[in-house]
Structures are given as structure tokens and as C-alpha cells.
Amino acid sequence: MAVEKVKITGVKFFQGSIDGKDIDSGTIFVEEMLDFTTGRAKGYATQVYKAGKASVSMELMNRHEFPLIAEVEFMRVTNGNETKNVIANVTALPHDITQPKDKKVA
């Protein structure tokens, strides 16, 4: 598993039943740099990652404002045909709440 410091721009979740099937899923939106190496892109985009359970997204939603800087533990999983990264754990990092000093007006 890999741990990275990222900017989380938002979260969503669903916990319930649809057509008799129990669903417990969360989604976390992470800001990532566009591929600038081609010379045709510059800036950032938001990439969607699945969270292991809805509770991961719910906790972030209930405890934090966004965007949020956090350490995210990514886990690579496969079904035998396709590999993807999911978020196994999120640890919010403390933020600097100091404000820039106001300029004095003469």
C-alpha cells in the first residue's frame, strides 16, 4: 500500500439497499496534476477514487470542510482482469490557521 499527501476536494457516499441488494460505498475526489509532459495540458483535475466503505466518506463529511489536505492510503486491487486503486484509509492533516498580518495604513 502507498501513502500520499493529497488535496481532497469532496466526498459522497451511499449506504442502503437498492432492489434488495445492500450497498455500502464511498467516493473520494482527489485533486491531481494533469499530464503536462505532452505539452497539451496544464493545471489540475479531480480524480474519483472508491473508498472501502461509506463510513470513510461519512467521517470526512461530518468532521471536515473541503478542500482538505490529508494523508491517503491507496490500495491496489484486482478482479483478475482489471486493476484499480481504492482508498483504504484517510488521515486529515492539521492545517495552519494563522492569518497573514494586516498591513498598517499610515
Mass-distribution shape: globular
- Largest sheet composition: 5 strands, mixed, barrel
Order of helix and strand elements from N to C terminus:
EEEHEE
Gyration radius, rounded = 18 Å
**How many domains, in number, for the residues?**
1
**Could you say what the CATH topology is called?**
OB fold (Dihydrolipoamide Acetyltransferase, E2P)
**Poorly predicted ranges:** none
Task: List the main descriptive attributes of the protein structure presented here.
OB fold (Dihydrolipoamide Acetyltransferase, E2P), five-stranded mixed beta barrel, globular, 9% helix, mainly beta, 106 residues, 5 strands, 56% strand
Write the layout of secondary structure elements.
Elements (H helix, E strand, L loop, with lengths): L1 E17 L2 E13 L10 E8 L2 H10 L4 E11 L4 E10 L14
Describe the structure.
The mean pLDDT is about 90. Strands 1-2-3-5-4 form a five-stranded mixed beta barrel. A hairpin with a 4-residue loop joins strand 4 (about 70-80) and strand 5 (about 85-90). The protein has one domain (about 1-90): OB fold (Dihydrolipoamide Acetyltransferase, E2P). The protein has one helix at about 55-65; strands at about 1-20, 20-35, 45-50, 70-80, 85-90. It starts with a strand and ends in a 14-residue tail after the last strand. The protein is globular, with a radius of gyration of 18 Å. It has one helix and five strands. By secondary structure, the chain is mainly beta. About 10% of the residues lie in helices and about 55% in strands.
